[in-house]
Every structure is written in C-alpha cells, then in structure tokens.
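Dear support,

We are seeing what looks like truncated structure output for some complexes. This example has two components. We would appreciate it if you could run it in full and send us the complete token output so we can diff it against ours.
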Amino acid sequence: MNLFDFAPGREGYYGNYGGCFLPEILHSTIEELQAGFRAAKNDPVFWQEYRALLSEYSCRPTPITHLANLSRDLGGAQIYVKREDLNHTGSHKLNNVMGQGLLTKRLGKTRVIAETGAGQHGFATATMAAKFGFSCRIYMGAVDIARQRPNVFWMENLGAEVISVQDGQQTLKDAINAAMRDWATNMADTHYVLGTACGAHPFPEMVSWFQSVIGLEARGQMLQAAGKLPDRVYACVGGGSNAIGLFQGFIDDPDVELVGCEAGGLGPGIGKHASRLAYTDASVGVAQGMKTYFLQNDEGNMNETHSISAGLDYIGVNPILVHLWEKGRVRFEAATDAEVADALRLVMRREGLIPALESTHAFVRAIREAPSMRRDEVILINQSGRADKDIFTVAEALGDAKWKQFIKDKAALYAAE
Amino acid sequence: MQLNEYIAERLAHRRPLLMTHVVCGYPSFEANWRELEIMAEHGVAFVELQFPFSEPSADGPLFVKANQESLARGTTVTQCLEFMARVTAAFPFRVLMMGYYNTAFKMGHETYIERLAQAGACGYILPDLPIEEARPLQLLADAKGLSPIVLMTPTSTDARLAALGAVARGFVYCVARRGVTGASTTMGDELGAFLARCRAATSLPLAVGFGVSTAEDLQFIGDHAEIAIIGTAALRAWEQGGETALQSFFGGLGV
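Here is the complete output from our reference environment:
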C-alpha cells in the first residue's frame, strides 16, 4: 500500500482527510517546501545521509527488548518493545527533527521554529538547531511551561529562545497557531519544524517518512528476535507520528493488526479526554492546516482536552491514521489516566523499563489484551519515549509523597537564598 | 445594486473607500453596535463582521484576544448571524462575513451560504480557505450573488496572482505585508510595486489591508488602490478610550 501515491488534484489527501489549508501568504513557502521535500525523498543520497546521521548521533538502530517477565506473568502473547526511548533526548521526536534539519539545510534556511507541548519536540529541535548552527525559537503554551520547566531549562541552555504563548488554552494547539504566525512573517529565512504528522501537506507525509525508520527497523528485528512478524502492534497516538512511523513497517502485512492507543483521560465525555477516534466525541473539521477529526463543538470551535500526558493532549489527529481507521486497517482504543499510572508501575517493577506516560498508553492496551492471546502469538509495543527525565510529571501522576516533600524542602532552600 | 456598481458609485464621492472590521461579541454586541454607528458616521463603505473562532491563526495578538474573549462570553454563530441581519437592515454600508473555514464547514456549505444571504451579507473572507479548496463554496456563493473575497499577498508569484485573479469576485483583498494583522506597515515603493502586480492580475477594485492606521496611509492607498482596510487600529482605539477614542481616531484619518 503506497499511502503517498496521490491522485492528480488530491495531493496531500488520505481518503477524505489531510489537504493543505493555509493562508495565502504561506502558499509560495509551502510550495517551496513541497518541492524541496519531494526532491529529497527522491534522492537516495539524502536518505543515506539521514540514516547515517541518526546512527552516529542518536543510537540508531534502536533495539527490540523482549519482556520475558511480563509475558510470563500475563500468560498469553510474548511481548516485545521497540526502544525509541533510547534516542538522544529520550524519544522518537529526534528522528523527525534530524530529518527536517537536513531539509532546512537543503532549503538554504538559517532559522528554525517549532511548537512544543510537553517539551519533547522543543527539546529535540533545540539540540538539532545547536548541532546545525540554526537560530531557534520554540513556542510553548504558558500552561505547558509551568508544567514542564525541566524541558524549558534544557531548551534554553541549548541556545533556543522559548516563547510563552498566552493565547487560548495556552497549550499545544495554541503554540502551533503562534508558530504559524511567526512562519507567516519570517518564511524567507525560517523553516517551521512541525513536530508531528499533522498540519498542512506535506507535513503529515514528511514526518511519516522520517519516522518510518522505526517500522523499517522493527520489522526485520522482529523476524530475527521472535522468528515471526508480530500479531499485534501497539502505539500511542497524540498527533500520531510514532504510530505511523511504526505502522508503516507492517502496513503491507495484512495479518499484523495495528492498534492506536489514545488518551482516555478521565473517560468519555466532552473535555475529559483527548480521544478523537476511540471515543465518539470528535467530528470532522478543518483547522491547523488540515481536515481531520477534531474534538470540537457543533459550531466548529475546539473543546478543552485532558490527559495525564501532555504529549497526547491534542485536539486533532494524523489524517493518515484516520484514513487507515476508516478502512479498518488500524484499530483505535483509549487508555485512561488511572490505567496508565497502574501500567507504568507494573512495567517499572517487572521489567525495569520506564516508558513515558505517552508510551504507557500503548502498554495499557497490550497488557489488557495479551492474556487472551495464545502463547505463540507476539505483541510489539512502541516505547516512543522515556519517563525518567520527566520526573516531575511522573512523580505527580503517581502521587509520590516523598518526592513532594523533597520539592518542598528544595523550595525552602531556594527561598532562603 | 451589484458590488462593482456600488463601489464605482461610492468612489465618485471619495477615494479610497474604507472597509472596517468588528469582532462579533467583543467586547460586546452592544459595543459593536456603537462602533458601527461611529463607522457609519464616517462614511465607511464596507464592514467585516468577524465570527469568532477558537484557532484564529491568521490574526495578530489583539484580534486573537478579541476572538478568545468573545467565545468565552458565549458568542455563537447564530448570534453573529442575527447581529449581521440587524446590522445590514440598519446601516448603509455593505457587510462581509470574516472568519475561518471551519465555521462554514461545520455548518455545511449550503447552509452557510443560505444563512449569509438571509442575513444580508454581500460576501465573505475566509483566510484559511485556499482557492484550490474554495470552488464548491464559490459555486454556491455565485448562485446567491455573494462575493468570496480572494487575498493577494506580496509572496504570491505573478502566476499565482493570475490564478487568484481568475477566481476573484467583488474586489481583491491585497495583504500589504507578510505576517498577521496588527503590526505596522511601511507604505512605500515596495507596496506600490506589489499593488501594481495585483492590478495587472485583476480588473476588480483593490482593497489594501494589514497595518493601515493613519491619514498618510489612506493617502498612499488612495493613489494605488480603491479601498483601505482599517482593522486592528480601530479596535486599538476603542480599547484605549471607547467611543471618544474611536471618534477621534476616525477624525484623525480625515474622513
């Protein structure tokens, strides 16, 4: 299945979803990006350069880990994990960022901007900018800055300027709007490094292409490690870049079931979660450059969203995944905040892995479904990021009393300075 | 009267014509009404009524705040349409709906056009709906005599300007500079050259917006185009001093 073989006049569309809905001021910029990206995608040397960069800068190929203890405990399918958490900066975000960095160079631009929610993408972009010598500005919602100071600390120390976005809900979607406004002003020297497989064409295709390294590696690794392809593959879905990255490796294997895991938050109901497809609270709309499912009201204004993980807390979803969902190729499920906290504890205790809260959503569904599968069946989970560097967020999610006391003591110490 | 006749008739009395902008429900519909009375007193020819949207990505900080606060006050699309109907019945200027495409998409194209026509609008401006995607809506608008206003920008190539000109109706909205609404614009040779490129791409009247705020700006625009668009500057005046400030703002424009 070639997802990117567009019919004439339907460039950037996946079924009824995707497209390129941007203000006219950005038309020539997005055309330039489309042409630059097309040339890079058709140039085998570019892909070689990209793979080489990732292997020397970011530990690629990342390994597959067999969860022997948990598989035995659950008594069903054998569970394997793709270790995207071992990338530099701690998540799959770096794959996309390095690819777009190489593309920025090719386009002759010297400045990059990015939005960030939890800060993972901003952190990755700041490292890329430092390495390539680009000036760098990161837009981040004021609410997210308050929640994610450690990532802001790293971004600033890596030389990026972090702008606190005060509009709207002061979260990821508002940071995207702010970055778009910057791009509409400074496009001559600036590339917008969008962090997920959303937005106007060619961003969904481009981000999917860079993230396809995950699936490409994983398919071969599973054949080697498990002696067969996985029966089910699980990935969390916020914007949907790690999921489409992994799923592309198995898209032409009809016996491999693909499962997207969304943020179920506090359960179904408007404003209580960020599940666009697993629950029925979302509908099709056009915003943030694309046509897709959004958590919005009847008049097309966006609703509040909620999740334990900032990285999944987003109103819209990758249009490619919506298309695959409609075709029945990808199943969508939700994991609630409470299930995520439980699964994280379990995975830490039994396997010594520390998946990011985002990635833990995929673990929740896999852990729930594994016992009803046969022992010769195989599960693959994408551990898209690691949580040890998000200690503030995780400690809060787990309600750790000793940690809270430590922070109080530390604060008292600083207050006395 | 057709839009082109209306513009020609008004141009016989003054040049440039003025188009102003109000964000529906911000700070309130009552305040909007008072703003519109002042605008009418100063002979404004067109008013954009912006329907607030939660993701106003083409707007600058002041309009972003206005969109957000209007929605927080509970403004609905139905209220905006009712307001539009009252405005078009009471004032001599022509009214356009300004907003984002999702408002039209969620309502359904047919309903959107039908309701705008019923409310007395003469057209609409949807800055995030590119011409490649605009045709289905445009066909419905043509049938109802509504003008979808096309934007031309300084980053548009001549080929792109020609494509924009081919589908434009009513008049063309020329974006005076890069960026979003609200920042100032240098009225000079560069803008003059851009407007000359626009002129070559369409026979429709040209309206110039983004950063227009002074009598000198109007003079420059009058030399190169037919309509000057005052957006953020008027709202800024209202924010600073209510109707007194808005009166003196328009007074200062020499209109």
